[in-house]
Amino acid sequence: MNPTERRALAGLASLYVFRMLGLFMVLPVLTVYGTGYQHSTPALLGFALGAYGLSQALLQMPMGTLSDRLGRKPVIYIGLLLFALGSVVAAQTDSVYGLIAGRVLQGCGAIAAATMALVADLTRDENRGKAMAVIGASIGVAFMLAVIIGPALAGAGGLSAIFWVTAVMALVGILIVWRLVPTPPPGERHIGVRRGNFRKLLQSPGTWKLVGGVFFSHLLLTSLFVPLPLLLVDRLGLPSAEHWRLYGPLMAGAFLIMLPLMRMAERSGRVPQALGLGLLGLGAGSLALLPGFGGAAMIALLAVFFIAFNLLEALLPAQLTRAAPPEARGAATGLYATLQFLGTFAGGSLGGDLFGHGGASAVAVMGFVVLLLWALLWWLLRDHSPQTQAG
C-alpha cells in the first residue's frame, strides 16, 4: 500500500474500533443490568438490544446512496453526531422505553455504508481485499475489547456509564475522520448511482449470498447475547461484573486463530469454503445454550463461535466491494449494512421474546433453524460463488 492508503486505512480502522466498541459494549451486559429499568421484561430488553439495528437497517441504504452524491465525510459526520445524541438519551433514562428510544436514535447514525465505501474509494483494487480484511479485523478487535470493557464499566457505573463513554467515542470518531482520513479526489466521488449498475447488483445471486450471510451471522450473535450473560452467572457462577475475565482470554484466542485462517483463505482462493466453515462454526453458539453444556464444554463452544463470527466479519465485506461497480459502491455497502442491522434487530427481538417464553433452549432451537435456512440459501446459490461474482 502507498502512504495515502495506509493513512486512510489507519484512520478508518480506528473509527471502526471506536464506534463498534461503543455498540458492542452493551451486548454482554444489557440483559443483566437492564432488569433494573422501569417496565423491563425479557422481550423489551431483547427489543432494546436489537432496536439499534432497526433504525440502522432503515437508513443504511439512504445514507449510503447519499454519500455517493454528497461525499462520504459529510454523511459520516452527521451520523456520528446522531449516534452521540442517542447515547446521551440512553445514558440519562431509567425506563426501558427511554432505553429503546436512545438505542433507536443511536441507530439513526447509519454510517457503515458510507465508511465502507470510503475505504473502497481510498484504496486501489489490488489492495482492497487487504483493506476490507483490516476493517473486518478491526471490528473483531472492537468486539474483543467490548466484551472485556463492557462488564467492567457496567460493574462500576451501570449501563449509563457505557452510554456516556460511547457518546465520547462518537465525538472522538469525528476528530479521527477530520484529521486522519484523506478526502477522496474528485474523480472518486461518484455522482449518483446508475440504475442499471445497481439493478445488476441486486440481480446477482452472489450479492445475496454475501448479504444473506451477514444477516444470519448478526441475527445469531445478537440472539446469543440475550441469554448468555445470565447463563454465565447461573452455570459458571461468574458474577456479571467479572465476565471480562472469561471474555478476555476467549476473544483474544479466537482472534489470533482467526487471522491465519483469513490469510490462508485469501491467498489460496478458498474464500467460499472458508465462508462455509464460518457458517458451520456459528452453530457452536446455539449448542452452548443447551442445558447439557456447561463449564469447559460451554467455553470451548463459545470459542468456536467467536472464531467463526470474526472470520465472517473479515471476509464478507471484502468480497462484496470487489463485486460492486465503483459508482454503486455506497449503495452496495448500504445493502450489506441494511441486512447486517436487520439481523441485529431480528436477533434481539426474537431472542428476547423466545427467552421470555421458553428460556435459553428456545433461543438455541431458533439458532439451529436459522442455520438451516442459511445453509439452504447457500445451496440454492451454490453455482454462484462470491469469488465468481467478484471476478
Description:
α3 packs parallel to α6, α9 runs parallel beside α12 and α11 packs antiparallel against α12. With 391 residues, the protein is an all-alpha fold. The C terminus is likely disordered.
Order of helices and strands: HHHHHHHHHHHHHHH
Average pLDDT confidence is 83
* Gyration radius, in Å: 20 Å
Could you name the ranges where pLDDT drops below 50 across 5 or more consecutive residues?
A: 189-193, 384-391
Report how far the terminal alpha carbons are from each other: 21 Å
Derived structural class: mainly alpha
Q: Could you describe the largest sheet, including whether it forms a barrel? A: none
The proportion of strand residues reads under 5%
Oligomer: single chain
Number of helices: 15
Relative helix content = over 70%
Which shape, going by the Cα principal axes?
globular
Topology, number of strands = 0
Question: Can you give me a brief rundown of this structure?
Answer:
By secondary structure, this protein is mainly α. The protein has 15 helices and no strands.
List keywords for this structure.
82% helix, mainly alpha, globular, 391 residues
List the helices and strands and how they pair.
Layout: H1 3-24, H2 30-33, H3 42-70, H4 72-92, H5 96-107, H6 112-121, H7 125-180, H8 195-203, H9 205-224, H10 228-236, H11 244-268, H12 271-289, H13 295-323, H14 329-380, H15 386-390
Helix pairs in contact: 1-7, 3-4, 3-5, 3-6, 3-14, 4-5, 4-6, 4-7, 6-14, 7-11, 7-13, 9-12, 9-13, 9-14, 11-12, 11-13, 12-13, 12-14
